[in-house]
Write a structure and sequence with these properties.
Layout (H helix, E strand, L loop, with lengths): L12 H44 L4 H6 L6 H15 L4 E6 L4 E10 L10 E10 L5
Antiparallel strand pairs: 1-2, 2-3
Length: 136
């Protein structure tokens, strides 16, 4: 209005609204990346758990008759590795077998989406699990 004490500021809301929309979309994109990383960790942890338990199920038959339960270390190692390769073929893994325990470490490189803008192309998700034979 001409002649009033307040000056007209037409169009000043548009840049602020644009900035707020950009900030909200950036936060949604980051939340999506974090949720994807969490999902990838759950998948890798499930693979590690399953592989360790599969290896721990292979008990040496001779040890059962002697009353001392031990793992068949060779078969346990092969079974754990076979399971990881079947479920997550792109994963890097390590299997360690002792007389009473199988430990599996699994690592998977997950490609990033939005974070590639700031130079983060991939993120390595890792999980470890150990299991042993149970009696009872």
């Amino acid at each position: 209005m001409r002649g009033s004490l307040v000056e007209w500021d037409g169009g000043s809301i548009t840049p602020m609204l644009g900035g707020m929309v950009f900030i909200v979309l950036t936060m949604v994109a980051l939340a999506t990346e974090v949720a994807g990383l969490h999902s990838a960790f759950l998948e890798v942890a499930a693979v590690a758990d399953a592989a360790a338990e599969a290896g721990a199920a292979l008990v040496d038959p001779a040890s059962i008759h002697s009353g001392e339960v031990r793992l068949d270390q060779h078969r346990a190692s092969l079974e754990s590795a076979r399971l990881v390769e079947a479920v997550a073929p792109a994963a890097d893994y390590a299997v360690e077998v002792a007389a009473l325990e199988v430990c599996v470490d699994v690592r998977v490189a997950r490609p990033m989406g939005v974070l590639t803008v700031i130079g983060i192309d991939s993120f390595t998700v890792a999980a470890s699990s150990c299991a042993g034979p149970a009696t009872g």
